[in-house]
Each structure stands twice: as structure tokens, then as C-alpha cells.
């Protein structure tokens, strides 16, 4: 059997960068502004209408993430031109990056799909993944899917993050038992 490597909860988040439209590079998992955690949303790309809807929905939860001290970053394997075209359908104000390489996707442990046709897209692409990195650079929450229909419900996610981040709850990183 062929097993792919998946990031484990509690491990250091890998050092990865991706370009942004302003010409700079962003470090995945490194929060911006006053946030001490970062939620990295890996999405399939412009060709995916479910991704467009999810990213637009995510905008509605931006304040809830901020209230929990969690910064948001979205990233895909799309090209600069594909992201620029996608922005016409997106109504977002959080940072978005592009150009994830296949090696970076493998490092993240996301599922990778081959396009069904050139009309879909012109490159292999990542299936959805969510990586929430804490202030120590550790992977605190991980969720990966092999299709666009299964993603965390954003209301439950933000409520859960607020609960985890509440120091009175002493909530550890879950799922760390080796087997």
C-alpha cells in the first residue's frame, strides 16, 4: 500500500512560503497583526465554485477568528493570473496567496488531484486543508479532505477555537498519541 505523509497534530508546522499579488511572500502559519495563531486554508483554486463560496463565507467569520486571536490566510496552487481572475468572484479582505507547488502540497499532506480536463485547470491542485498553527508554531488543529464537499463548518470552527483559546479551559492539542 502507498501511504502519504500527513502532518501530525502537535508537530512543528513546516516552513513554507507563497507569493501574494502585491509581489511579496507570505510565510504560511505565521500570524499577522495582533493575532497569535493562524488558520491556513488550502483551497482547490479558481475552478472550484465550492471554494469560491467557502472563501466568501469565511469573510463573514473574519471577526470571529480575530476575536479568538486567529489570523486567516488562504492559499492555492493557482497561478497569479488565475488568482487575479478569481478575485472577480471573491468578496474577501483577508490575505490570499497562490502558487503552492506540488512539493509544498506533499509537505502539508493534503490530497492532490489531477485536473479532469484543461477546462477545469491546467495544473495538479490541492484538495481542501485547514491547518491552525498556535503561537509556538505547532499544528494545533488539522483538517484535510479529499474532495470539496467536506470542510469544517465555520460557525462551529470559530466557536471551538474561542473555547480552545480560553485559558480557563486548559484544552490541549488533541490526537497526539503515536500508534
From TrEMBL:
Q: Matching Pfam families, A to Z?
A: AhpC-TSA
Can you tell which superkingdom this protein's organism belongs to? Bacteria
Output one GO MF annotation.
oxidoreductase activity
The record's InterPro entries line, in alphabetical order, gives: AhpC/TSA, Thioredoxin-like_sf, Thioredoxin_domain
Q: Where is the Thioredoxin domain?
A: 7-166
The protein here is known as Thioredoxin domain-containing protein
